[in-house]
Every structure is written in C-alpha cells, then in structure tokens.
Amino acid sequence: MNNPKIKIIFAGTGNFSSKIFESFINNTDFEITALISQPNKAMDRNKKFIETPVAQLAKKHNIKLFQPTKIKEIYEELLNLDFDYFITAAFGQFIPNSIIKLAKKAALNVHGSLLEKYRGAAPIQHALLNNDKETGISLIYMIDKMDAGNVLFSAKCSIESNDTALEIYDKLAQLTIDNLPNWLKEIYINPKEGYIQKEELVTFASKINNEDCELFYSDTKQFALNKIRAFNDQPGAFIIHNNKRLKIFRASIDRISTPLSIEFSDGKLYLIEYQIEGKQKVKIM
To answer: Which PANTHER family has this protein been placed in (predicted)?
Structure first.
C-alpha cells in the first residue's frame, strides 16, 4: 500500500523560496496544496507590477496562490484547505498563532542560519558582515515569537572568501532542497520535539536599511569588503566617490587589474563589479 502524500502549504516570496518550493512539485511524496507570497511590489519600466518569483511559480504550475497584505486576511480560506504542514521560507511576514494552529501536523520555518545565531530578518547579511566562515539552515517549529521555536534539524555549509549574499542564498537553497524532503518524511512518521534554543546564546540579525550600506574612506578595507559581500544582492553597498554615488557589487583585497580601486583607511580594495551613478554597470571578471 502506498504511503499518503504529505500535503504542504508553502509561504515565501523571492527566488530563494521559489527554488525550494519548485523542488517539491515533481516529488511524488508531496503535494503542494497552495503557495503564499507577499503582494507584488516591484515595477517594470512601464510602471506595471512584476510578479514575485513564488507568484510566477504558482501560475506556471497552476497551484492555488494567495498574496495577502497580512496573512491573517486569508484565515478563512486556509481553514478550508487540507494540509499537513505549513512551511515558511523567507516569506517576510510574522505568522500569527491562528494560522500556526491550522496545520494538521505542524507549522515550520526554514531559517537561513544555524540557530541560536542570527534570529531575525537578515541572517545571511549578518553572517557576511561578521566575516563568518560557515552558515547553514535550521528547520524550526513556528511559535508566536520570531525564530524562537524548537530546532528540529540543521545543516551547515562553508562561506568562501569570495562568496556574496547571492552565492549564500544559492547554497542555502540547495542545502534545503537536499535535506528538507527527508526531514519532513522523518517527522511525519516519528514526530519529535526538537532542541530548545538557549536564550543566552541568541544573537539577532536586524533588518538592513539603506543607510547601513554606505561605505566610508575611514573604514578598514576588510570591513568595507564585508559590507560589499553582504549587500551584493540588495540594496547594494555604495560610497560617495568624486561627488557621485558609486555602487560596489564585488571587490578584492588582492591586487587585480581594474580601472578603479578605492583607498580605505588601511589599504585599497580593487573593484570587480561596480556602477557609477548615471552610467552602466562595469564587470571586470
């Protein structure tokens, strides 16, 4: 006799979420009951809204899609759906208890750090800001306190010296794709309480603001490089250079052949990918 499919509602918004969710679509052990995304906010040149990657995924595969401004708005719709797990991955909204309680088995969150380290909105960016050498994912129970639930599973990956947020997002998405199906099948058959997080070990990764991304000539070159790596994806590290905003997406401490380098307090950074205000992006290698 075949085992029943594990039914999931996924909530996420960007490319990180979309890659993970798509990996489940052709997995015969699972059924995606619905996808939830933040509303479409980005606009194209014609001032038309661009669908989020998760919204695009739902339409591509004809999966029921919700895009509430606040998730509590769709409580009644979710109440009428059949699902075992409610799983979030970089969704961007706090999930209230009323929604958490709807899943027959559990509400779970895929978090982009090795908890207890880096609870909060920007764990990948903070790992790079601190020049960490490893990171990972944690699968946790959702409770009514952000990223504070028991940790069920975790998996690690290394952070290489040239990794930016883009590379780490890809690494953590693949780590989730490789592990999450087996983790879910394991706890579906044998539920577990997980590891209680120790509050004295908790650190926080607060949301990144645009002003956090500015570089200064008084910075050390390593500190500047950490910022460049952390904010490569968005919103982008920048410095005011020759009275213009210079966005820097990639740089090197090691000397390379490049048209532009910036002198910081203890030496130069050699720019690999950058954009001077009002000009096209330059990519050296």
So the answer is: METHIONYL-TRNA FORMYLTRANSFERASE, METHIONYL-TRNA FORMYLTRANSFERASE, MITOCHONDRIAL
In this structure, are residues 146 and 92 in contact, taking their beta carbons and an 8 Å threshold? no
Tokens (6 digits) for 223: 């500190």
What pLDDT does residue 1 have?
A: 47
Lowest-pLDDT range of 39-53, 77-91, 200-214, 243-257: 39-53
- Enumerate the H helices of the chain as residue ranges: 15-25, 53-60, 75-79, 97-100, 123-129, 165-189, 221-230
- What ranges do the domains of the chain cover? 6-204, 210-283
Paired with 241 in beta bridges are 244
The residue type of 232 is: N
Q: Could you tell me the fold of the domain covering 210-283?
A: Methionyl-tRNA Fmet Formyltransferase; Chain A, domain 2 (3.10.25)
Q: Per-residue pLDDT for 48 more than 90?
A: no
CB-CB contact of 60 with 22 (8 Å): no
Distances (CA, A) of 82 to 71, 96, 102, 263: 17, 19, 9, 59
| pTM given for the model | 0.94
Contact criterion met (CB below 8 Å) for 35 and 58: yes
User: What beta strand segments (E) does the chain contain?
Assistant: 6-11, 30-36, 65-66, 85-89, 106-111, 134-141, 151-158, 237-241, 244-252, 261-264, 267-276, 282-283
